[in-house]
Design a protein that fits this description.
By secondary structure, this protein is mostly helical. It contains eleven helices and no strands. It starts with a helix and ends with a helix.
């Protein structure tokens, strides 16, 4: 019992000494600690002020600017969508002037797709590569469109890599079947029959109701015939 009391007394003494050391440290470094705490408040306050007074107005401005460019895009007026009409900005300027905003990010996407439709494949790749999204449609289309651009440039290996990225881990029935079939066709053209078959089989098994899967058995049969030849 005495041993236990002695241990408890030692613990109390240790804690007391630790508290004394902490108090002494704070006393000796009070000025430095005050500056650090004040600095943290300034940083946090500055960050929220940046969001409210700078970033939020920029987001609103960018959203207003991109509206007209999107209108031209929907009308298939791609030159005006990209370059603006003299009164409103096009996707190119919006992406540059409003970098870091959601609208600026979307401007990269629209600029890339516009360039792709114009046959300007290198610029399409450059802008689409700047676009970032977790959206299950936009992310697949942007990545797949880079694949399209590389295919048009005759860079089949790069094209297939981007098609693979577009469909990997994605299950969106609206766009994934489209790029699965493209990936399969390109893989077959490149002589990668096993890989092509995997794309076609996935298209058949996971997206049987899609338009791309209507004649997919014919593609699988052709691959099987080549592999067994």
């Amino acid at each position: 019992m005495a041993k236990k009391n002695k241990q408890e007394d030692e613990v109390i003494v240790d804690v007391g000494q630790s508290l004394t050391r902490i108090e002494k440290y704070f006393e000796e470094n009070r000025k430095s600690i005050t500056f650090i705490v004040a600095g943290l408040f300034i940083i946090v306050g500055g960050y929220f002020a940046y969001l409210k007074l700078y970033q939020e107005p920029r987001e609103n401005e960018a959203q207003e600017e991109i509206y007209q460019a999107q209108s031209y895009f929907e009308q298939d007026s791609l030159r005006l969508a990209l370059n603006g009409d003299g009164q409103s900005l096009g996707f190119i300027d919006i992406a540059a002037e409003y970098s870091g905003t959601k609208a600026g990010n979307m401007a990269n996407y629209y600029a890339g797709i516009s360039y792709l439709n114009q046959g300007n494949f290198e610029d399409a790749i450059a802008y689409l590569d700047e676009f970032e999204s977790d959206d299950p449609v936009f992310s697949v289309v942007a990545t797949g469109a880079i694949g399209d651009a590389f295919w048009e440039l005759g860079q089949a290996e790069e094209a297939l890599d981007y098609y693979h990225q577009a469909v990997s881990g994605e299950s969106n029935a609206l766009v994934v079947p489209f790029y699965l079939k493209k990936a399969g066709i390109l893989a077959e053209e490149q002589g990668e029959l096993k890989k092509a078959r995997e794309y076609f089989v996935r298209l058949r098994d996971e997206f049987e109701d899609s338009q791309q899967a209507v004649d997919i058995e014919k593609f699988i049969a052709r691959i099987d015939a080549k592999m067994n030849a």
